[in-house]
Amino acid sequence: MKQQEQWTSKIGFILAAAGSAIGIGAIWKFPYMAGTNGGGIFLLLFILLTLLIGAPMLLAEFIIGRSTQKDAISAYRELAKGSKWHYIGVLGVVISFILLSFYSVVGGWIVTYLWKSVTGGLSNYTLAEFSGLFEQTIADPFQAVLAQFIFLGITVWVVQAGVQSGLEKSSKILMPLLFIIFFVLLVRSVTLEGAYEGVMYFLKPDPSLITPNAFLLALGMALFSLSVGISIMVTYSSYLEKGEDLIRSAGSVVVLNIIISSLAGLVIFPAVFALGLQPDEGPGLVFVVLPAVFQELPLGGFFLILFLVLLLFATLTSAFSILEIIVAVIVKGNPERRRKVAVITGLIIFMLGIPSAISFGVLSDVTIAGLTIFDAADFLVSNIGLPLGALLISFFVGFRIPKNILEDEFFQGSRVKKSLFQIWYFLIRYVIPIGIFLVFVHSLGFFK
């Protein structure tokens, strides 16, 4: 059944798609990966690989969704009747369940930190004490589960309202606010005494710091920072009118993603360098180092609240898209079922995520292949599910969909040179599968 819901405007679609891509990865994961892999050279590799590989993959998912106007499973079934290719959509739905189950746990941590910052609970801590506070926060089972429930509750509330009243409306509010907060934080960060060193570290590439590991990590970040691999963008583009310019829309999402990732680095690294701290703190950069950094600044408590609000907005917009792919598959174009499906799905994901939420406390002794339940779920999604899904989608678009159909969809609503399609087709068929395969085997630890 064709989707009955539609985006009301092109900007609404672009902001929602960008919101999906601009999640906690851009603001949390990208800065610490850049900090541990050479700063400016990692940023340069990320930008180049996003344009060369990430953008063509994003456009491929847009083509699948808009051409069929159907949910993630039905879209593949429509384009490859009588085959098993629709299991790409099934894989995307399964991975989305697992992803949101632990992603909501991290969202809960942000909710907790925001509450603590608003109520003054993050005052007068040293860097070491912030480290202990983070360990205490994630180990408290009641606090972790309650915060996860609150985060998922907000997500369900938006998604159940529908494409126009929920996803599009929230994106039109949250994304501009996100940029405003980013601008305020950026001005504060780069005007700190000693901030110049941090700006240069992030913006000045040092070719001597290029390593095979940094290259593959940047490639993985470029691919998955755009939410490609689990058919989220297939779902979002299925709500587009047939005449929309997919190339321009994909370009807008890519540019916004690069801008946000760059802004995150320009907010974080100047502040870190200004206070004499190291940029290679890893995953604890946001929850341990930054609160300590903000505490040392005039009006630091206010700026910490702003940063946590920013982080929460970005995390929520991604959560909306992850839940939407599941809801869309079950609803199958019947909007009257959306509210019930969203609530029930949210409750199932909440129950599924409880083990991850308490895996740093009550279930800390329970491990899977040496990993906590949270880390095992993360590994399953990030190292197996996402790259496998992206690889299958590249094969599907490059070798299963007839070239003439791809060409028709590529140019529908767009005015670009014919040579651009030939370049995109070559990349999607030959270059991108090799790149994704390298990321896949690297993420599984076959080579470093």
Written account of the structure:
Pfam families: SNF. Keywords: Membrane, Symport, Transmembrane, Transmembrane helix, Transport. It is a multi-pass membrane protein. It is found in: Membrane. Belongs to the sodium:neurotransmitter symporter (SNF) (TC 2.A.22) family. The protein is mainly alpha-helical and 448 residues long. It has one domain: Hydantoin permease, CATH 1.10.4160. Helix content is 75%, strand content 1%. The chain has helices spanning 10-21, 24-36, 40-68, 72-79, 87-118, 127-139, 141-159, 163-190, 195-203, 212-224, 232-237, 246-274, 284-295, 300-331, 338-357, 373-400, 403-411, 418-443; strands spanning 367-368, 371-372. A two-stranded antiparallel sheet has the order 1-2. Strand 1 and strand 2 (371-372) form a beta hairpin. Helix 2 (24-36) crosses helix 12 (246-274). The mean pLDDT is 88.
